[in-house]
């Protein structure tokens, strides 16, 4: 209801106005009446009326003085209607100049006159409220658009920076991005057990989560420091701070990182890992610092708890790889159907990888590739392939415990489906398909495939078309495009990287082939995928 306050020193006028109309039936709440301007000011502060009807001639504070004082009260946005007697036109005119909406003559006042002017005031209040809401929504949209533009800028900066140095700096200036040109450091923050955390249902609004994380970190940073903060992917964030004074030492940075983990867990019930970069100079070195931290965060795979550490502490041995003999052992167990032995092999390979500081991504990639081999063998028979959900659990596992559980689940699936009732294609064609899947990241020629099955190229081409209904080239391209579509959803991979991972070195050819297959180019597909994730 619209709240109405009446101010008049004549008691009979106050009573008369109250009894003149059924206020509530018309949508108005009579909140009271004051006998002078001084009492009215106290009631305004207490009740914040929407409409104030005031006499002009009163003791202590008269009507004109009251209007002036009301305009000095920031929170009062109500409409003012003045009551006057004959001969007070100069006072009425002055009241209108001061902001009164309209006036009523006491001696001729009728219920319809009062209702008409109340409706006029209510209409203006409603219009102003709508205008304010429109302006508020515009302001919110401007802020959201700016934040989204800044997030997209940082995403492209650390993954797909197609801009020149000059364009990068100009875009940063346009988006009001400030990074110390001398020395800064970066905190890479990633949510631990992300799927479980987001699956709890507490954080259904991504913007609210991002805002809360940013606010808590901002509160922990000294007021004299300017911080750049951005979400990079669903679970990954970074904060960039000047490498000065209290943060110029390793101990100072580590103390801040630990406080961030403590406060995010205390106030948001979020468990995070924080990796601290080496100092760097300027915006153009953000990419290197971020990727170094992200790589170092892989250390979490080998641990049973969240981590806070300096990136240089994760000294992965890029030269070490899983031994071929270890993989052959796993293949033997697969062929023999010895599932328990297969899982024991996985545990042995994990121990080997941990002891030799093999990067978890390399460990996971190797084991998933073995799963792919198994899948391709199964796919040749009645198209039994690993369910997408099981594959995602393997690819997204944050630690070995989760990875092992996903692997055991995959083993259980293939134990059930790997032995089909009848093959769909003859043995030579199944071998060709397996070769394509296994060597998809390489350049594959018809000669290579023919050698694999010991056949004449022309004969193989005709046989393949007869069996599958497609040419070898078309079949291979379909496999590559399907794989590309999944890889493009990975925020860590650029379009160029995806092209190379599916064995196409010519990115322009990849773009044309992808567009022909899906009706859009890879870059737009990737952006569209992340835009859909950004929607609340």
Automatic annotation (TrEMBL):
Keywords: Coiled coil, Cytoplasm, DNA-binding, Phosphoprotein, Transcription, Transcription regulation, Two-component regulatory system. Residues 115-142 form a coiled coil. InterPro entries: CheY-like_superfamily, Homeodomain-like_sf, HptR, HTH_AraC, HTH_AraC-typ_CS, Sig_transdc_resp-reg_receiver. Transmembrane segments: none annotated. Residues 3-121 form the Response regulatory domain. SUPFAM superfamilies: CheY-like, Homeodomain-like. It holds the Pfam family HTH_18. One of its GO terms (molecular function) is DNA-binding transcription factor activity. The modification 4-aspartylphosphate is found at residue 55. It comes from the Bacteria. GO terms for cellular component: cytoplasm. Residues 430-528 form the HTH araC/xylS-type domain. Gene3D superfamilies: 3.40.50.2300, Homeodomain-like (1.10.10.60). PROSITE patterns: HTH_ARAC_FAMILY_1, HTH_ARAC_FAMILY_2, RESPONSE_REGULATORY. It is found in: Cytoplasm. GO terms for biological process: phosphorelay signal transduction system. PANTHER family: HISTIDINE KINASE-RELATED, TRANSCRIPTIONAL REGULATORY PROTEIN HPTR. This is DNA-binding response regulator. The lineage of its organism: Bacteria, Bacillati, Bacillota, Bacilli, Bacillales.
